[in-house]
Amino acid sequence: MSKGHHRNWMVRLIRWYQKHISAHTAPRCRYYPSCSNYAIQAIERFGCLKGGLLALLRLLCCNQWNRGGIDDVPQLYSLFYRCSWSKAHEEPRLTPLDVDEPIGDKENGL
User: What protein family does this chain belong to (predicted)?
Assistant: First the structure.
């Protein structure tokens, strides 16, 4: 079996989960993209082993003790891409809104 075959099989399995299980439950993921979409992107970008490992680490972080937020799949593979000293951390990233900060124009007092 080729690497592409394994990759397609894993992506199909995740899509089955999204369609038949996740679609019938309330959203619970604390991150964007959702953990299942993150897993698909990671597997498509880095393959089954590396992408699957990134997806597993993401699932371990998705719990009630973590704030969540925007967490894109890194452009460069690194298990430590969330760490400030990682080269993968230097890529441009979206930053989540700070939920503690009021929405409005601070300069005009709104």
Answer: Belongs to the UPF0161 family.
